[in-house]
């Protein structure tokens, strides 16, 4: 069974960089797309971007200038970096396996809350 | 910028049927947007119920069905149960790899 686990600092200062890791177990990251999605407190879901199995990326145009999604430093890890954060970036951040039009987001992590505050 | 629209809230009685919709602020939703529906219960991660307009994900009961109704995507839930009380989000594939979530519909089971 594929499992995803997000990890990283729960508190980031304004103007700093948010960095999260998604560790995939029970399967390989190869052969799939992987998305990051966030949810501000009490709000809806927002797609941040994805990483393909070939290493290419695509991002939400509203975040594109600040986002980087890449393969993590360890096997079966993905990373998310969001720069120049503000309080508006406070959210639960999810990673998900993304089957796109052929399956939607079929596996999700439990999410991790990141608070932007001084 | 195109906005994906959903009803903010809906109430339904147990045993009833509800149809939630997903539209565009400009234009019509068609199968070419591959509408996807996700369910999120409070405090939980979402899960995909329906993808590519009307294909149920593994393990999703056939009480849940997707379709195109007029110029919108639709999620119909029949035989409503108490644990169907959740937030429902549609996702549209806008081309170029971009995915856009709707604002979500909060479904209350009375």
Spell out the helices and strands of chain A N to C: EEEEEEEEEEE
Low-confidence stretches of chain A: none
Hey, which two chains have the biggest interface? A-B, 25 and 26 residues
Total beta-strand segments of chain A:
11
Oligomer: heterodimer
Global morphology of chain B: globular
Which spans of chain B of ≥5 residues are poorly predicted at pLDDT below 50? none
Count of helical segments of chain A?
A: 0
Order of helices and strands of chain B: EEEEEEEEEEE
* Average predicted confidence as pLDDT of chain B: 96
**Helix/strand-derived class of chain A?**
mainly beta
* Cα Rg of chain B: 13 Å
Proportion of helical residues of chain B: under 10%
β-strand amount of chain A:
over 45%
Treating each run of at least 4 consecutive H or I residues as one helix, how many helices of chain B? Answer: 0
Termini of chain A, distance in Å? 39 Å
Explain what you see.
The complex is a heterodimer of chains A (118) and B (110). Helix content of chain A is 0%, strand content 51%. Chain A has strands at 3-7, 11-12, 18-25, 33-39, 45-51, 57-59, 67-71, 77-82, 91-98, 105-108, 112-116. In chain A, strands 2, 4, 5, 6, 9, 10 and 11 form a seven-stranded mixed β-sheet that branches. Chain A has a four-stranded antiparallel β-sheet with strand order 1-3-8-7, with no helix packed on it. In chain A, strand 5 and strand 6 form a beta hairpin. In chain B, 0% of the residues lie in helices and 48% in strands. In chain B, strands 2, 4, 5, 6, 9, 10 and 11 form a seven-stranded mixed β-sheet that branches. Chain B has a four-stranded antiparallel β-sheet with strand order 1-3-8-7, with no helix packed on it.
